[in-house]
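Q: For a teaching handout, I want to show students what a protein-ligand complex looks like in token form. Below are the inputs, and the small molecule is manganese (II) ion. Please produce the holo structure.
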Amino acid sequence: MPFPISAERVSVMINANRLLKHLQELSQIGRNALTGGINRFSFTPEEQQAIELVTSYMEEAGMTITVDAVGNVIGTYGEGSETVMLGSHIDTVPEGGKYDGALGVLAAIEVVQTIHEQQLSLSKKIEVVAFKDEEGTRFGFGLIGSRAMAGLLTYEHLQKTDASGISIGEAMKQSQISPVLLEKIKRNDIQAYLEMHVEQGRVLENEELPVGIVTGIAAPLWLEVTVTGVSEHAGATPMPIRKDALAAASEMILAIEQMLNDRTDSVTTVGKLIVEPNGVNVIPGRVTFTIDIRDIDEQIISTLESSILRQMQKIAERRKVTLKTKMMQRVKPTKTDPMLQQQLANSIEKQGVRPYSLISGAGHDAMNIAAVAPIGMLFVRSKDGISHNPLEFSSDEDIMIATNIFYDTVAGLTK
Ligand code: GLV
Ligand code: MN
Ligand code: MN
Ligand code: MN
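A: Here is the structure, written as tokens, with manganese (II) ion included.
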């Protein structure tokens, strides 16, 4: 049920039309005209164009802009030794939607612009951050900007390469982001970090609520698996003597799904598969696939990882193929700060909405920032829970309600 907003309930309102216009403009960058999917990957011309647009919005909102050594774009508003940071990301998955990440950055800018227009005097400065590469699309390794700010990005990480062999470090140099001084990026001055994001699930929709308060964020472990068999003639090789890498990988993928079948919180996904040599009349000799394992509990993730590896090894031995696994990325699950949860709950109540708490199945930059600051997250209802898909949708009204709540919390924290 949509919630009616009355002037008595909300004394200051953000400019919803401006925010929706910004969201629409940003969604045109990297948009595939055929599918409507958005493709903005790190250190590409599309991402650069998005950065320039977002930077112009930040300037319009009265912020000064800096770019740190990994390419995080930071808009600073006001002065003071203490910082309240707001952020999210503007990169996308392949064929992504228009709200994931983008909404959080643009809503944060809208909050600052409203504060600017209201000429509120602040005791703390506000920083709005568009973090570098949250999704991990290009390098199979994500959350680059937030890792760096939390002191969790290493020089070894910068060696990770994209499909054409370009490393993160090289991509940075090509973008004139150099020298990379990782030690200098780590922040110890953030009093609070807040992120607004679309839920990407169906919980709020089922509860008929426009927003929710995140209590914890499940974290991903990504593995790359290579199965090697023998590539042979599809007509001349009898079935019993084949070492078919794709048949073996298929059995592994189904076994992983089977292992998680009766779980609700833990999830695993095989989302990427490369078959070589990929010919109609050639037995697949090598298959590379990825596994994404998530839970809110780190111990459960580790237990799942070992059972999956054991199960795959058994299948490999029986099918006489070889198995190699490589860790792509591991992130720590996190809890959000109880005080910030309460502040968000107060702002939600002021709007006459029932405060409701839920966990995040998706990963967010907030989970890294949790290593250096208290974090809070506000979720906005997603339609049918669809995300990482061009059909991703949150209503204009929900966005307006959420951003007004976000404004109220930020204004309260920086008073
Ligand atoms: C990206 O959105 C992720 O949660 O993996
Ligand atoms: Mn996101
Ligand atoms: Mn995403
Ligand atoms: Mn994410």
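A: Two things your students might notice: The pocket of manganese (II) ion (ligand 2) is lined by residues 89, 100-101, 134, 197, 364 (CB under 6 Å). The chain has two domains: 16-218+333-414, 220-330.
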